[in-house]
Amino acid sequence: MEGQNMALAFWVTDPHVLLSVEILAVVSGLLYVILAVFKKRMAWLWGFINAVISIWLFYQISLFAESFLYIYYALAAVYGWFHWGAHHSEGQKLMIVEIPLKSHFWLVPLGILGGIGLGFILEAYTSASYPYLDAQTTIFSFIATALTARRVLVNWIYWIVIDLVTVVLYTWKDLYWYAGLMVVYSIIAYLGWNRWKRELDTPIS
């Protein structure tokens, strides 16, 4: 039994295994965001696959807030799958909507405060790497994912900022494939914003 445990420990920390998992996560993540731009329901399936892989990977490298974030992503993917599917089953167009500008005056401060609180918890009770930066990107990703699932146009602006900040975090942890993915994400997010803006329908009251 001890030998099996040692073999398992070696397997999950082997650099080649981690790199292979990272590449698989990158591919599934790219499929998710590209399909989301085109409002394809299958985006959420690939998003779920990406989330499950990333939960394990980030836990292995002590980015606990990121690991927790991807649990949320997995749940959001399930919600997005059924929410977007409901419109398809009823033959409805997936409408792009907008929220009032004043909404960001409470969303952004809420995200900052939430990030500070989560960062404090991570620093005090875990061995998390870069707890405050990790926490800020995590909290704002919660917000952006909720906006994406609701098909709110400005989600893409949030993602551009989050992705560029996350490039730094992943580079510090030697996750170069993930860092590269975040650069690509930011570009796709800009393209997604332009595409969704052309299809904007009606604001949420």
Structural summary, described in words:
The chain has 205 residues and is mainly alpha-helical. The protein has helices at residues 2-13, 15-37, 42-60, 64-89, 104-125, 131-149, 155-172, 176-198. It is globular. The N and C termini lie far apart (60 Å).
Can you lay out the helices and strands and say which pair or pack?
Layout: H1 2-13, H2 15-37, H3 42-60, H4 64-89, H5 104-125, H6 131-149, H7 155-172, H8 176-198
What's a concise summary of this model?
This protein is an all-alpha fold and 205 residues long.
Principal-axes geometry comes out as: globular
Strand proportion, as a percent range, falls in: under 5%
The helix-strand sequence is HHHHHHHH
Unreliable spans: 1-11
Helix- and strand-based class? mainly alpha
